[in-house]
Design a protein that fits this description.
Layout: H1 3-13, E1 19-20, H2 26-37, E2 57-64, H3 68-72, E3 81-86, E4 95-100, H4 102-112, E5 116-120, E6 126-131, E7 137-143
Antiparallel strand pairs: 1-4, 2-7, 3-4, 3-5, 5-6, 6-7
Length: about 160
């Protein structure tokens, strides 16, 4: 099944308040994220290679991949977040942005099964969930000193 078909299914399974694709605003959203959290090393590339260019990168925790969904439960159920999914692991891969509540975010991550980003909708914090190639562990990274819901994982 193609990625677009999976997204269409999610749109049918969740209300627009729970899951949406920001068709008209995606460029502005991605620019705000890039300007705040990503180091621009090549002006020819927009909205790509974020994983290697996180500004003030800090490792939050490394978790077992089996614990990923329970770790996402640190997010508030009633709050939506930007979820950015890279099209592939290649540095020049396109990145797609989605507006997700907790339930649709977990469903999206289940479909993707690879690295992804979660950004607070007011751009207060940025996290990168780096899934290892063997899918055994996930390293959670953040940009800067902002407190994220996942900082609790660093304490055990």
């Amino acid at each position: 099944m193609y990625w677009e078909e999976h997204i269409d299914r999610l749109k049918k399974s969740y209300s627009p308040a729970e899951f949406s694709v920001p068709f008209s605003d995606w460029v502005e959203i991605m620019k705000k994220i890039e300007n705040r959290f990503i180091k621009k090393v090549n002006s020819n590339y927009h909205f790509s290679n974020w994983k290697n260019n996180i500004r003030k990168e800090i490792e939050v925790a490394t978790i077992n991949a089996k614990d990923l969904e329970s770790s996402l439960m640190f997010l508030t159920d009633s709050t939506n977040h930007w979820v950015i999914i890279p099209n592939s692991q290649a540095p020049t891969a396109s990145h797609y942005v989605y507006d997700c509540n907790l339930g649709s975010l977990i469903a999206l991550v289940r479909l993707h099964k690879a690295s992804f980003f979660i950004v607070e909708k007011k751009y207060g914090w940025f996290t990168f969930f780096c899934v290892t190639e063997d899918n055994n562990s996930v390293t959670i990274l953040k940009s800067g000193e902002s407190i994220t819901p996942f900082d609790k994982l660093a304490n055990g």
